[in-house]
Specification:
Elements lengths: L17 H9 L8 H13 L12 H20 L1 H5 L8 H26 L5 H9 L16 H19 L8 H29 L3 H20 L11 H6 L7 H19 L9 E3 L4 E3 L5 H11 L3 H14 L1 H22 L1
Antiparallel strand pairs: 1-2
Helix pairs in contact: 3-5, 5-8, 7-8, 7-9, 7-11
The protein binds Phenylacetyl coenzyme A.
């Protein structure tokens, strides 16, 4: 769906006639246009808020930035299946188990759309997986924390998916077409994820004191990690200025974080939980909430591989990859057989 192949002229037909061959030759080769003109065309399209598609010329740095961000995003989705996946076999009812299976499966699907979108930029899935499995690629810090109780599953839906939607809605307007289009469906599904988490927590909050304490404990452990998910403060974000100039990022890390805080405070009130920040209060002048200091040292330690679950998460992914080798081999052998059969039939 997201590959370049749909944009490639159909060359499968017979040998072109002399006239057709001449007209093919007449198509100007991209190299005959100067790099400066291509850059000017690209800049003009970005300035006009247009879309860049896989077959369009783009600066190498734009391509690299997109491969970095989209592949990190894809890795986050598939590593993000693990913390909640741990609870599928322990969900408290058949209904909750079915919802959780559907949600975790959706996250796997998001990873696949995103890997496909990244492939349109000229990287391969094998290259991306290799970067993840060897620890060279980043994925979201949030998935390196443990899910200790069932309430964590609800809080991940409410807060982690809630933060993910806040960050991803603007990506539906990203300047790179395949990424923007992938995000439309991802956001619709994330919205269901957020609601199912919030609803699960509402049910627990109307339960026993022990259940309410479990929810509060989970909120206490996840709140600050969710605020850090939006990335470093704008002043320390090396990629933001260029990403925004290119229309990849539309809203800055700090602005999205603020929107998330403002949206979440009333939801916490309805739920009946306290957000664990003594400095959290409404600022009448700014018409926004003030909030306390995020522990960026802890964030960077986690991003750099030293969070509580980094090794476990990576180990699980590598094991799944190795154990799935026979499936990939079988699928390839099957595809080769089918191709050989088609060629025999065509001969
Ligand atoms: N974790 O200059 P910036 C989800 C890195 S999906 C780890 O600000 P940028 C769904 C950043 O990569 C969650 N690393 O970077 C779900 C960069 O390093 P680099 C993922 C982080 O790209 C829910 C460096 O710090 N969402 O949750 C983090 O302009 C539930 C400097 O940062 C996306 O990926 C972090 N939190 O802005 C699944 C959305 N933050 O590459 C399962 C798309 C920053 O230079 C269950 N991505 N870094 O070595 C984005 O919007 C952006 O890439 C940001 C970072 C905002 C994440």
């Amino acid at each position: 769906m997201y590959t370049q192949s749909f944009n490639v002229p159909d060359q499968a037909n017979d040998t072109p006639t002399a006239g057709a061959a001449a007209s093919l030759k007449a198509v100007p080769a991209p190299l005959s246009i100067s790099e400066a003109a291509l850059q000017a065309d690209f800049d003009a399209r970005i300035d006009a808020d247009g879309r860049i598609e896989p077959q369009d010329w783009m600066p190498e740095a734009y391509r690299k930035t997109l491969v970095r961000q989209i592949s990190q995003h894809a890795h986050s989705e598939i590593v993000g299946m693990l913390p909640e996946g741990n609870w599928i076999s322990r969900a408290p009812s058949l209904k909750r188990k079915a919802i959780l299976i559907a949600k975790v499966q959706d996250e796997g699907g998001h990873g696949l759309y995103l890997y496909s979108a990244a492939e349109t930029l000229g990287t391969s899935r094998d290259q991306m997986f290799d970067a993840l499995h060897t620890g060279r690629a980043k994925y979201s810090s949030i998935f390196n924390y443990p899910t200790l109780t069932w309430a964590d599953v609800g809080v991940i839906g409410w807060l982690v998916d809630g933060a993910a939607i806040m960050n991803q809605i603007p990506l539906c307007r990203c300047s790179y077409g395949p990424y923007a289009r992938a995000m439309v469906r991802v956001c619709k599904e994330e919205s269901f994820h957020q609601r199912q988490g919030y609803e699960a927590l509402l049910v627990m909050m109307s339960g026993t004191d022990e259940q309410r304490a479990m929810v509060q404990d989970a909120v206490n452990r996840w709140w600050w990690k969710c605020l850090a998910m939006f990335g470093p403060p704008d002043a320390d974000s090396p990629n933001s200025a260029q990403g925004m100039r290119w229309g990849i990022k539309r809203i800055s890390n700090d602005a999205l974080r603020q929107k998330f805080v403002d949206a979440t405070v009333p939801q916490a009130k309805v739920l009946g939980v306290t957000l664990p920040d003594p400095d959290l209060k409404w600022n009448e002048t700014r018409q926004q909430h003030d909030y306390g200091a995020i522990d960026w040292d802890e964030f960077w330690a986690t991003v750099n591989g030293n969070g509580p679950c980094n090794k476990e998460r990576l180990g699980t992914r590598v094991k799944a990859w190795n154990e799935g080798q026979w499936v990939r081999d079988a699928a390839l052998a099957h595809a080769r057989k089918q191709q050989a059969r088609r060629m025999l039939e065509a001969a």
